[in-house]
Amino acid sequence: MTAKQNQFQLIDEEQLSLQLIEAQYALKESRGKSNAKSQLILVSGIELAGKGEAVKQLREWLDPRYLRVKADPPRMFNHQETFWQSYARSIPAEGQIMVMFGNWYSDLLSTAMHVSQPMDETMFDEYVENMRSFEQDLKNNNVEVVKFWFDLSWRSLQKRLDTLDPSEVHWHKLHGLDWRNKKQYDSLQKLRQRFSNDWIIIDGEDETERDQLFAQQILRAIQHCPVHLSKAKGRWQQAAVPEALLQPAAEAQQDDAEYKKELKRLTKKVSEAMRMDRRNVVIAFEGMDAAGKGGAIKRIVKQLDPREYEIYTIGAPEKYELSRPYQWRFWNKIQPDEKIMIFDRTWYGRVLVERIEGFANEIEWQRAYDEINRFERDLSDSNTVVIKFWLAISKDEQELRFKAREETPHKRFKITAEDWRNRERWDDYLKAAADMLSRTHTAYAPWHVVATNDKKTARLDVLRAILKQLKAE
Amino acid sequence: MTAKQNQFQLIDEEQLSLQLIEAQYALKESRGKSNAKSQLILVSGIELAGKGEAVKQLREWLDPRYLRVKADPPRMFNHQETFWQSYARSIPAEGQIMVMFGNWYSDLLSTAMHVSQPMDETMFDEYVENMRSFEQDLKNNNVEVVKFWFDLSWRSLQKRLDTLDPSEVHWHKLHGLDWRNKKQYDSLQKLRQRFSNDWIIIDGEDETERDQLFAQQILRAIQHCPVHLSKAKGRWQQAAVPEALLQPAAEAQQDDAEYKKELKRLTKKVSEAMRMDRRNVVIAFEGMDAAGKGGAIKRIVKQLDPREYEIYTIGAPEKYELSRPYQWRFWNKIQPDEKIMIFDRTWYGRVLVERIEGFANEIEWQRAYDEINRFERDLSDSNTVVIKFWLAISKDEQELRFKAREETPHKRFKITAEDWRNRERWDDYLKAAADMLSRTHTAYAPWHVVATNDKKTARLDVLRAILKQLKAE
After folding, report:
1. Which of A118, A168, A261, B393 lies 20 to 30 angstroms, CA to CA, from B442?
2. What Pfam family is a match, any one (chains A, B) (predicted)?
3. Residue A148: strand pairing partners
4. What pLDDT was estimated at residue A178?
5. How confident is the model over B318-355, as pLDDT tens digits?
6. B66 with A294: Cβ contact below 8 A
7. What is the mean pLDDT of residues A339-352?
């Protein structure tokens, strides 16, 4: 990058502004089209290096109405929240440009600079690696990311502090750093060098060059959005469909009194285990229609107060959700202050219905397994247990249940023409489920395949699996 | 209500469940249709009266996947936030049912019960009145509201506290009230009687009756959603179009050096005034296309850091916004932690473009003036200054600017076929603006009509008006 920067030339302001506006409108017009993109701009750096001024100048050259700016004060990481959680909502939609002053890197720096709890370098680097993976996922999903570090030498910083207008000091209190302290300055510079090799460094010394370099680089980023096709290597290897999916066990009917007693014991134990666990709990259900997701969920919450949990029923995405990365609507549903979150269908829709119906193309769904694994690992790293169920029913049993639903008054709402249509693609779903199970069964978020031809056994098995996973860790 | 309750009869559970599910699905199917509704259920009451249990039972009778539950712990009012602000996001969309345990009434009770700052009765009653107006606006905009107070006698409460399972005590810490204190109990009961006459009172004594009464009342509410046509009384009185709109003054061109000097002085003063003001500032712009909204906004933020303000450019609502009250998207944009919020077009769209294009029917737009006034009064009551501008341009000047835009490279994006179409309805817009100005010019949120045929004078006038309103109060 440095070589390029040294070659950069000041260009006529009006010309620059015109090019920026043209690029901005081209981006805006892309919305809903196959080449749709959005632009995320992360801005961090040394205090008084001119971040604010450069963005301000940019806003004057662009059409300011279509440039959003988000400026959260840096926050210390807390261990119940992924690094992207509080920013997820602000990920720009197709056609939008978003500048983030506060971002995951400024949070990381704040956390690492906090004197009482120094962060070791391995952990710091691990965070950086996870952040880059997250950004790669954004890019693959049409959110361009470009990162700017505004730099300023120690000497210039001190000079600027000397001449500071006291009425403007308020911004400098935000970062909780003492910019008069050379040691802090040096540690910060050392730390940021651990991540800034894919950042564009803007020297804050000269104001005009600073603003132009910043704007020119953004122009380049918007104009030349690369296409990120991180295609899977080699031919797709279809996983074999496991026996448990082909022939779900149908255990003998349980004795009713026994079942009731055991159900009561287990529901009580599950609610206590979830309450006592210091972690949040995410329970995810997938499976064919009528496999018993609703019934299983009902038993999980049986002994809970309705204020203790949230059930998310996932259907087709809304239009505004479609203009963001497909995982976006799930990022926003994960709430650090929600103890128990149950998903009736999940983010696995990408590799099930979207794969089968062609809503996601081959490159997209084949890439999604890794994206999902990263998502679940981030959750797991931030004190959230992810418990995943595939409810396995046989094709015959499904037919029986469909027919029963059509004949039972309070169940007939549960069955639609679409359910019958999905049934015709039974084998496709089995194949997709097999791939999913083999590629996303991880140590931190394992799958539980539960046979549901016998409803009662299935419900008990689900509860037992929850207990097992909560205690196993 | 009491009479009805005494007459209520237990009905067969399966029957009740079936009716509830049918009503729920009918509501769900209404989405997007002309009879679309949503159901908001507020739940408050005495501790241990069984609110949680009743909702739990309801969730078992209904299809739990389409019943959302929100349970915020009660919060004290803070004076930078309207009472509805933190709940706005959870207002249910068409077809949805939402139970709110934490709600504006529980916040009001918490605030009033806080010993160190007792609230006088007049203020309490004023809050209640504002809350009812807000609920009436919700109802008029297809969000049904039904309120339940779960009651329990002092004696029964004490008995239940005696036999409490210690492992379940956690819910009772939430309310910060000492339920062993008879005086507190009595004050709470006295307070809630000041608002509960339009609530359904559920006696928590008998569990079965409690759950059935609650569920039956909700069934009734969903089945018999009344149509709220609070039509304006009498014939619509079209306001006369004021001279300032018909013939906006075109003052002589300013001396350029003078203008620049004064502009610099004013932009500096405006940014300081907004920063120093202890209140948040909302600045709202309306006016014909090309009247100079963008240019005025540019000057307002001239001396601000981009992190200090937010610009909202308002276009057509998205689909998910259309399934809520029309003001909803603005409720959600008002952020108590955002100091300066600038709206390029506003909630007045309801009585301008929506009125003229027929997106809102006569009853809806005629009702909107009062709704808007209430919204702005709530903002004003919670320490937010609302500064509103109508930028008045003449039809000839607009034509000149449209043509200039088409010929200027970096402005041609600003002009579309729609702008020319809107121009054909010039007189309709003038009439609508006249009605708007005469009906929503209030002491707490006055309009500033600024003539913009001369751009420079207009920009200075906008800045002066901001200064005037900020100091006048």
Report:
1. B393
2. PPK2
3. A43, A200
4. 82
5. 989 999 999 999 999 998 888 999 999 999 999 999 99
6. no
7. 97
pLDDT at B391: 97
Q: Is the dihedral of CA B164, B165, B168, B173 positive or negative?
A: positive
Is the pLDDT at A473 greater than 50? The verdict is: no
For the segment B125-132, the average pLDDT, to the nearest whole number, is 96
Environment class of B224 (CB within 10 Å of its CB; exposed 0-12, middle 13-18, buried 19+): exposed
Contact B211, B54 (CB under 8 A): yes
B25 contacts A60? CB cut-off 8 A: no
A462, A388 in Cβ contact below 8 A? no
Average pLDDT of the segment spanning B358-378:
95
Q: Is the pLDDT of residue A174 over 60?
A: no
Mutate to test the interface with A, among B90, B283, B413, B414 (most CBs of A within 10 A): B413
Which chain B residues have a beta carbon less than 8 Å from that of A23? none
- Give phi and psi for A85, each to the nearest 5: -60, -50
Top-confidence range, A115-124, A416-425, B60-69, B429-438 = B429-438
Residues A327, A347 contacting (CB under 8 angstroms): yes
Instruction: In whole angstroms, give the CA distance from residue B438 to residue A429.
Output: 62
| Burial class of residue B208, CB neighbours in 10 A (0-12, 13-18, 19+) | exposed
Classify A89 as helix, strand or coil: coil
Structural domains of chain B sorted by starting position, each given as residue range(s) with its CATH number in brackets = 2-223 (3.40.50.300), 243-472 (3.40.50.300)
Strand A67-70, strand A97-100: pairing: parallel
Q: Once rounded to an integer, what is the mean pLDDT over residues A19-29? A: 92
Report the b/e string of A197-227 with b at 16+ CB within 10 A: eebbbbbbeeeebbbbbbbbbbbebbeebee
Lowest mean pLDDT among A4-8, A378-382, B129-133, B180-184: A4-8
ipTM above 0.95, yes or no: no
List the single residue in A with minimal CA-CA distance to B337.
Answer: A72
Answer for the pair B464, B387: CB distance below 8 angstroms, yes or no.
no
Q: Which residues of B touch A414 (CB under 8 A)?
A: 63
Among the partner-chain residues B18, B59, B414, the one whose CB lies closest to the CB of A410 is B18
Share the mean pLDDT of chain A. 90
Identify which of B70, B90, B86, B69 has the alpha carbon closest to the alpha carbon of residue B78: B86
pLDDT tens figures, A347-370: 999 999 999 999 999 999 999 999
Complete edge-to-edge strand list for the sheet that includes strand A447-451: A309-313, A340-344, A280-287, A384-392, A447-451
Indicate yes or no: CB of B52 within 8 angstroms of CB of A298: no
In this structure, are residues B99 and B44 in contact, taking their beta carbons and an 8 Å threshold?
no
- Residue B18, Cβ density class (10 Å: 0-12 exposed, 13-18 middle, ≥19 buried): middle
Higher pLDDT, B258 or A2: B258
- Mean pLDDT is lowest, of B57-66, B141-150, B247-256, for B247-256
- Number of A to B CB contacts under 8 A, please give it: 97
Antiparallel, parallel or unpaired: β B38-45 and A447-451 = unpaired
Contact between B185 and B135 under an 8 Å Cβ cutoff? The reply is: no
Q: Residue B250 contacts by C-beta under 8 Å, 6 or more apart in sequence? A: B394, B397, B451, B453, B454
Q: Hey, of B410, B412, B415, B416, which one would you mutate to test binding to chain A, going by the most A CBs within 10 A of its CB?
A: B410
The residue-averaged pLDDT of B402-414 equals 84
pLDDT given at position A224: 80
Handedness of CA B254, B255, B258, B260 (dihedral sign): positive
The answer to whether residues A87 and A145 touch, using CB atoms and an 8 Å cutoff, is no
Q: What is the largest CA-CA distance in chain A?
A: 84
Give mean pLDDT, residues A13-18.
Answer: 93
B151 phi and psi angles, rounded to 5 deg: -110, 155
